[in-house]
Amino acid sequence: MTNNSVGNAGRLLWAGLRALLVLTVVTGVLYPLAVTGLAQVAFPGKANGSEIKDASGKVVGSELIGQTYNLPLKDGEETASADLKWFQPRPSHGLGSNSVNTRYRLILSGATNRSGDNADLIQWVKDAKAAVVKDNSVNGYTVKPSDVPADAVTSSGSGLDPHISPQYAKLQVHRVAEKNHLTVAQVDRLVADHTDDRILGFIGEPRVNVLQLNVALRELAGRQ
């Protein structure tokens, strides 16, 4: 009787081990390899993180994650100033520091979670609007507060939105042209060429990927 019990237990254990081995190979090796291979064939760009490369082929970021374009911190500064030769993204408390062609470190992602009547949020929006007006008003072109779109003074829910509206991009054209010694027409054409329409013609809003636009801007400025 004891021998039968031990034998049955052994057979059950061996059957369980075989099932574990088979399922490990199928679900832990074969299935991931099949999915990865299919993704590499059908959607290689998306499967590899939607990487954006510069003219030299160097990866400078992902088209799905926003970046900031700031000057190096000066002594005594806690917040870096925007590098105004580049197109600026939406304001965010979640973006890591970066320039166009260096690695960036993600600090955090998330919204402020403040209500529309929150005093701090209202002040942030007022300060952001004043900064947009000041930074983008150059010789022969003055930005009015009413010209500033909502995405120029508010962050997205994730804090990592890689896009801005065409309106915000066009508002920055004169400043970017002046800082890079380009004509307004050249930079305006750059914005137009990097403006994506609504998905399928009706989903979402027209948008501009800031990193892709700045990569193209650097190439254009470098040819001058």
Search tags:
5 strands; 7 helices; mainly alpha; two-stranded antiparallel sheet; 224 residues
Topology as H/E string? HHEEHEHHHEEH
Mean pLDDT across the residues is 86
The neighbouring-strand order within the major sheet is: 3-5-4
Q: How many helix segments? A: 7
What radius of gyration results from the CA coordinates? 26 Å
Low-confidence segments, given as residue ranges, are 94-106
Strand tally: 5
Structure description:
Strands 3-5-4 form a three-stranded antiparallel beta sheet. It has a two-stranded antiparallel ribbon with strand order 1-2. The protein folds into two domains: 43 residues; 175 residues, no CATH class. α5 packs across α6. The chain has seven helices and five strands; from the N terminus they run ααββαβαααββα. 23% of the residues are buried.
Please describe the topology of this protein.
Blueprint: H1 2-42, H2 44-47, E1 51-53, E2 59-62, H3 119-136, E3 163-164, H4 166-171, H5 173-179, H6 184-193, E4 195-196, E5 207-209, H7 210-223
Short note summarizing the structure:
Helices cover 45% and strands 6% of the residues.
